[in-house]
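Hi R.,

Here's the chain you asked about this morning:
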Amino acid sequence: MEQGGPMYTFLVWAIGSFFTVFVLLVLVIVAMKSRRQWQESRWRTRRAQLEPALFKYVAGREPLETYTGGALDASDRPIVEQIFFDLSRIVSGHVIDRAHQAFEQLGFVDYYIHRLDSHRWWTRAEAAEKLGLMGSRRAIPPLVAKMDDLIPDVRVRVARALGSIGSPEAVRPLVHALRAPGRWSAIRVSGILIAAGNEAVQALLEEFYALPMHAQLSAIDIFARIRSLDTVGLLRDLLRHEQPDLRARAAFALGTIGDPGSLDLLTGALRDRAWAVRAMAAKALGRIRDESCIPALCGALADTEWWVRANAAEALKNKGERGTQALLSMLDAQDIYAAQQAVQMLQEAGVLDTLVSQLGSQEPGRRQEALEVMAKLVRLRRTDLLTEMAHNHPESSIRQRLSILLGLRLSPEPVA
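And the predicted structure, written out as tokens:
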């Protein structure tokens, strides 16, 4: 390549341009990093200055200016926001109210209400989220107006914001959103209403019979998750509703709430014509500590539907010692399905493992009890566990007794 020629000149120019761009990029990166570090340092310093004053403000009753020494600078906005948001996560009551007053006084609420109308969807989403954290009731109407936003993420942030505010005016639009499963996810709206707590319960109770079926089912699930005693009256009424889905969900909800006053109604639901209702009633009875329903649950072990039998057996297991004894007594049941379901639950609960271990007991009474139960298992032809133990149990005396049971007789005498 000839020095001074066109190609040489172009290469020198290209290398020089590349080097210049590289140096400029390095300088920009260094400048941006330095600026970010300076901002972070200023943020920490300014936060350390503002925090004591703002903590005194939320704990006191005087206006904000009394504690800050005057108006705050515009650059303090994100710092003040973050301090109050951090406080809101760990405190409640008067402190939250004072923080909400500060957001109003400093114009933060007006600022984010205005940003709800931004043409940028991410700005609208952020504004909705911030307004929810600020808990301003004045923001409810503009937030409700944005529930029809074209962007799903904005609608979700708006719904969460309304749920965070939690007043009746904020919650009712969320209840109405349950009506539109195509535009709103029922699961997502339900989660927001659950977080709203008692305010959601009251709104749903007021609107319940005006809701379509799918929304009523979602409402019952919400009642179950919140576990409010205010819903018990409605749920008891729904146990007599003509729709089996509503009866089943109501039974489940009453069990989740654990209302002992509903015991008789749930016991009666074990005879419902719809198997799903019977199954949910059995599950519900297992969650209520009262043991008076044990005989009814034993009867449900003979139900023609497997789910009812399975839930009844699990409910008996949850009743503790009396439930376990009831399951053991069902090994003698005339109904083969009831006896088999009892065996299944006793095995899952580890009761049969314990009884097998009792075969090696030095107490004749305990050993005889275990032998009698093992003999019943043989009669029911449920010998899978016993066969495994006969080969693998670490105690030879237990292996010997199990081998006798499985190979020689159905009503054995205890082995000395």
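The two ends are 108 Å apart (CA to CA).

Let me know if you need anything else.
M.
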